[in-house]
Design a protein that fits this description.
- The chain has one domain.
- The chain has four helices and six strands.
- By secondary structure, it is of the alpha+beta class.
- The radius of gyration is 13 Å and the shape is globular.
- A hairpin with a 5-residue loop joins strand 4 and strand 5.
- 26% of the residues are buried.
- Strands 4-5-3-2-1-6 form a six-stranded antiparallel sheet, with helices on both faces.
Length: 123
Amino acid sequence: MKIEELITNLPWIGLEEALQYGFSEAEALGKNFIGITLDNGDGLILYVNPFLNDIYKILLMSKSRYNLPSIGVFSNFNGDKYFIYDVGDISELINILGSNLKVIYVEVIKNVLEDFLYQTVVG
């Protein structure tokens, strides 16, 4: 999937800018995971090729349980647990999270979470 498809199908405020910044930063750092935090506390993790502007996989990271295929549970150093779900179709995000969300933060994922994602997503 290309960036444009995600932007077109998710009407969230700030998504386009977050993707542009995230892909640019991922390219500069040579990284493949971008994290986007939403104003409801949930987050998206995008497995990307920043050089081709491709999105290979969309994951939802949340403290809440959703009816989506789970790829695992990530615990940070504070002991907080996050469920990570595989999102097969963009419409699932709208059905679960709604269309009135705002992006509040974007970052390139690294360190422990990056290692976890490479083990569970990339294999």
